[in-house]
Every structure is written in structure tokens, then in C-alpha cells.
């Protein structure tokens, strides 16, 4: 067995993430590994490392978190559809807020929660694959004041998406945001 390899495994036995990166990036050290296929059990961390050429799977036991590798798919089978999300958000907000004509701070909190739960439920029924759905509904009273509402997002613009709808009534304005954030 390669002594250099054993030394690296001993040094990084508590850092499985770093071990994985080293075994893939250090091609020069592990070129002679092409014939090896072995299990190495470490008694100190109660872990096991299965090694193949340029491939490592670390399995943690005894209450330590398990680390999974990414799946083979890089794209969603059913990606987030902005048009469907916008349609759902508009329908739910119009249906719920059209029944109310006055702002009431005590009951509008429950109304916001109900609207966001309804939108979330309908969005989950669409089964957008590999997306986390986040819904935020805000109600602001119209009482001779202004409001500046801004949002900043740090995400992948090719896969992540957001939809916003503003419902205006005589005594309040409701702002609904629906985010579809891609999970890898």
C-alpha cells in the first residue's frame, strides 16, 4: 500500500471534505492507484473510506453526519416555471384580498400567513423538481406615507427565479413574493 497515501489519510481522517478534494486534485501522487480497489477502516473516527481511481466515498458512522455526493443530473426534470408561479400568486392574492376593504393590523397577520401558505401549497402541487419554494406576503397600510420596497438576491440567474405581485386596495397594499431557488 502506498505510504504517501496512508499518510494523507491519517492527516485528514477528521476532514473528509478536504480528503475528497485532495484525492481528486493531486493526480501526480495517485497515478499508481489505478489498480487499487480497497477499503480502509479507521478506528479513531469510526469511518470508512472506499477508494477507486480518482474517486472517494466517505461513510461516517457513530452519530457523525453522512456526506453525499452530487447526483449525476445537473438540470431539473421539471424546472421552475415563472408563468405558472405568477398565475398562482395573482389568483390567490386577488381571491383573498378582494374580500377585505379595510386594513386591520390584528387580522391581517393571519391573512398574510394564509395567503402565503395557500400559494406555497399550490406551488408544491406543481412539483418543480429540485427547487425550494419561498413565499413572502407583506401588507402595508395606506395612511399618507410612502414605502420603498427593495430586494437583493445572490443566486444563479439561469436557474433561480422570483415572481412579485402587488395588490392595491383603498386602505392597504399587499406585496407577494414567490422565489424558486434551485437545490443541487
UniProtKB/TrEMBL annotation:
Coiled coil: none
InterPro entries in the cross-refs: Tctex-1-like, Tctex-1-like_sf
One BP term from GO: microtubule-based movement
Gene Ontology molecular functions: dynein intermediate chain binding
GO terms under cellular component: cytoplasm; cytoplasmic dynein complex
Family listed: Belongs to the dynein light chain Tctex-type family.
Name of the protein in question: CLUMA_CG020267, isoform A
Phylogenetic classification of the source organism: Eukaryota, Metazoa, Ecdysozoa, Arthropoda, Hexapoda
GN (gene name): similar to AGAP005171-PA
